[in-house]
Amino acid sequence: MLKNRFIIATLTAGLFLTGCGASESEEAHVEHANGDLREETVSPEVLPGFMDEKPENVQNIYLAAAQHRDLLESIPCYCGCGDHAGHKDNYDCFVHENRDDGRITWDDHGTKCGVCLEIAASSINDYQQGKSIKKIRADIDKAYENGYAEPTPTPAL
Fold it and tell me: Which of 2, 75, 91, 127 has an alpha carbon 20 to 30 Å from 139's alpha carbon atom?
């Protein structure tokens, strides 16, 4: 079950981070932006090729992030990606664009950043346990207020 695997993945996300080992397929549209790789797939349930060699826990966080857009668009990221990658929220660390036809353009930024993964994993876990988005946002802001980069320009709740 995705939820159980996701909780386990949360506990070990920082232990298995690797660099980007992108693979391109003929069917996928792949581009580079601000040092990050972006790849389009047919739906949020289909991971991009750059995830092929990533640990299962990182793959699970990506899949869960795509399913929690409303939550993660309300949560800032504190890794500095607002300045260097133009991200507006934690969702942008994983997904660049959702199209009306269901296609999704993934961003590999989160595969290279423990802060992005931790924020997404803890936010999703808290949400699954019944916490409100407002409470999760307050908890993330407090946890990352010292010793991290400026938050993304995520609008206040």
Answer: 2
